[in-house]
From TrEMBL:
Residue sites binding S-adenosyl-L-methionine per the record: 53, 55, 78, 94, 119
A single Gene Ontology CC term: nucleus
Protein name per UniProt: Putative tRNA (cytidine(32)/guanosine(34)-2'-O)-methyltransferase
Keyword Transferase attributed: yes
Ribosomal RNA methyltransferase FtsJ domain mapped to chain residues: 21-202
Entry annotation: catalytic residues: 159
């Protein structure tokens, strides 16, 4: 595939580069805001697991160099270094550490946040049960630090994986928020189990004291949990948001050509990762150091013949293998006898013998050799 293949298959990836967003996930937060208006009246915002920064861009109202800055004070937190964003304060820290929570509140001059968003996700393993569990633990870690920095009645938005045990997460979130809604943005692929929770009306249990050293929902909150009713103890509304007549994240769209040009111009991503964890693996792959060697005795190894060291090396392995596999043509009173490749015979004459032999050898992935009959 060419470099433009992803542009063609993923319209949101292409639009993100054209409009100056660092990642296509920016459209997910924009579509969340379209339906829930989560930015209304907000003056202090925390973006957890912020890298590469597209959600911070959305909150700050920044679109490339020509954008307008938001009046909100924004703090972005991530373990990885992130390129600067105008109007955004960055903290490179761990969301499971109490010191990170203190640093966030310190930037708000002792005040608490109106809105906390988190688009973090683990590196998926392909084992869905494990991926769902790790994502759930990341969500609980984000919820834990949120209880330290979010004001009462505040809003919390986070990514979830909708696995078979997701109702437990809904119940846990319902303990801390008066309204929990699950939604699927239009820009999120239908094939993905990804969804988002919008938790509104932060109202922790009476007497709850945020504490990083203890797990959430300790035994003292069993009473609150047991008040929930129904087979799953809580019913969480599900809402598909985004313009249904807009772009479909699972469709392929034709590339848009610039005026006066007949070919598509590929745009580089707005901001590449500074030091991605996969950088070394990419370098090894470019150096062909990640290819797996074929095992001895495998069909691919047995089928491929050894290339002769020279064009006249016909007594070695290549010549013998060619004789056995293709059927060596021999001279007779009527010309040359038939050779065969995979059961398909060919008739040779003195004029066509050399060309026919090399055709056979090419089918066997052997370099062209000198005619052994001549």
């Amino acid at each position: 595939m060419g470099r433009s293949s992803k542009d063609k298959r993923d319209v949101y990836y292409r639009r993100a580069k054209e409009e100056g967003w660092r990642a296509r996930s920016a459209y997910k937060l924009l579509q969340i805001n379209d339906d829930f208006n989560i930015f209304e009246g907000v003056t202090r915002v925390v973006d957890l697991c912020a890298a590469p920064g597209s959600w911070s861009q959305v909150v700050a109202g920044v679109k490339g160099e020509a954008g307008q800055k938001s009046q909100a004070k924004i703090v972005a937190v991530d373990l990885q270094a992130m390129a600067p964003i105008p109007g955004v304060i960055q903290i490179q820290g761990d969301i499971t550490k109490k010191s990170t929570a203190h640093a966030i509140v310190g930037h708000f001059e002792g005040e608490q946040a109106d809105l906390v968003v988190c688009d973090g996700a683990p590196d998926v393993t392909g084992l869905h049960d494990i991926d769902e569990y790790i994502q759930a633990q990341l969500l609980l870690a984000a919820l834990n630090i949120t209880t330290h920095v979010l004001k009462k009645t505040g809003t919390f938005v986070a990514k979830i994986f909708r696995g078979k045990d997701v109702t437990l997460l809904y119940a846990q979130l319902k303990i801390f928020f008066s309204l929990v809604t699950v939604f699927k943005p239009r820009s999120s692929r239908n094939s993905s189990i990804e969804a988002f929770v919008v938790c509104q009306g932060y109202s922790p249990p009476e007497g709850y004291i945020p504490n990083m050293s203890n797990p959430l929902l300790d035994q003292q909150y069993d009473v609150e949990f047991n008040t929930l009713e129904g087979p799953n103890r809580v019913i969480v509304p599900f809402l598909a948001c985004g313009d249904l007549s807009g772009f479909d994240s699972d469709m392929t769209y034709p590339l848009e050509l610039e005026a006066g040009k007949s070919t598509y111009s590929y745009l580089e991503p707005t901001q590449s990762p500074i030091n991605p964890p996969y950088k070394e693996a990419c370098q090894l792959r470019r150096s062909d150091m990640l290819s797996k060697p074929a095992l001895p005795g495998s069909p691919s190894v047995q089928a491929k013949l050894v290339e002769p060291q020279s064009s006249t090396d016909l007594t070695g392995t290549a010549g013998k293998n060619a004789d056995e596999a293709a059927g060596r043509c021999s001279e007779g009173k009527d010309g040359y006898s038939a050779g065969a490749v995979g059961g398909d015979s060919h008739d040779c004459t003195p004029e066509t013998h050399s060309a026919q032999l090399n055709t056979c050898l090419k089918q066997l992935d052997i370099s062209e050799v000198e005619d052994p009959i001549k």
